[in-house]
From TrEMBL:
PANTHER family: GLYCEROL-3-PHOSPHATE DEHYDROGENASE (PTHR11728), GLYCEROL-3-PHOSPHATE DEHYDROGENASE [NAD(+)] 2, CHLOROPLASTIC (PTHR11728:SF1). Belongs to the NAD-dependent glycerol-3-phosphate dehydrogenase family. One of its GO terms (molecular function) is NAD binding. Coiled coil: none annotated. GO terms for biological process: carbohydrate metabolic process; glycerol-3-phosphate catabolic process. This is Unannotated protein. Residues 2-159 form the Glycerol-3-phosphate dehydrogenase NAD-dependent N-terminal domain. NCBIfam families: PRK00094.1-2 (NF000940), PRK00094.1-4 (NF000942). Residues 179-319 form the Glycerol-3-phosphate dehydrogenase NAD-dependent C-terminal domain. GO terms for cellular component: cytosol. Keywords: NAD, Oxidoreductase.
Amino acid sequence: MKISILGAGAWGSTLALVASDAGHEVLIWGRNAAVVDEINDHHRNSGFLGEVSLPTQLRATTDIEEAFEGADLITLAIPAQSLRANLETWQQRYPRSIPTVSTLKGIEVSTHLRMSEVLRQVIDIDESQVGFITGPNLAGELALRQPAGAVSASTSRETAKLIAMAFKTPYFRVYTSSDLLGCELAAALKNVIALAVGIVVGMGFGENTQAMIITRGLNEVTRLGVALGADPLTFAGLAGMGDLVATCQSSLSRNRSFGEAIGKTGDLHIVRETLGKTVEGVASSSAVVEMAHMVGVEIPIIEAVAEVVSGRMSPAEALARLSEIDTGDEIDLKGIE
């Protein structure tokens, strides 16, 4: 296939490497001419992937029309909160007759829409042509071709299989799912839990505290996902628990690292100035809280994170609030049967 990947950051470049290894003709689109030139001339993207060598047959361009022309699959690998603006710019030229796979793990803050919903709203592409790839896939490890697994999700079984074929290599195992809703929700919500884990690590707490946050966080993610119509089993797989564990436990995770910096300094402004990276969990947390309120699901950990990243509460105050919550049955199947 001819695969065009829109986004020349760490994840876009890594997926391009994977798709190229899978035997496809791959073109990366990016805005930054210097990054594009480095990919074409030196087969590296040093600003995002360090000294990792990219396949020599991999090409890059700043011309969006070139990226669209002749493509068999479009892959979105840009920041979630900028998706709508980019799609509106591309709207007239965007190819609607071929599948689009999103890699964006976020909820649009202003609308509470998932990324596939934003795509379909702006581009008016058929749902059967839309997919999502997700899982415990840290770019820094996958770019080194370390073994990993992922899930290709779409309401169309054919599209899910096509996406799996596009990225399947001996080191990257891609499974399929028909639960697009659940996979997208799991991907977005786990970023907020990773912030929570980072915060308690930054505060100096150890494995017991982290395990509690991860486990109870997964409970919150599952309950909210099911209330919104997702399959509960999705949250026990690679898209749910797998991605959550990897994101919460790795120093390569932007959300975990951002949370850890907040826990250490207690000052959100200093952290933003120091790290200066796109952190989807920060942007999504308030939207997730509003979504939970609309369906009547309690998500105390996610609410605490939203309070901290908005500057309304310190990490210590948030932890104290969580400690005051009454405990009951750990496993309550009401509402997720």
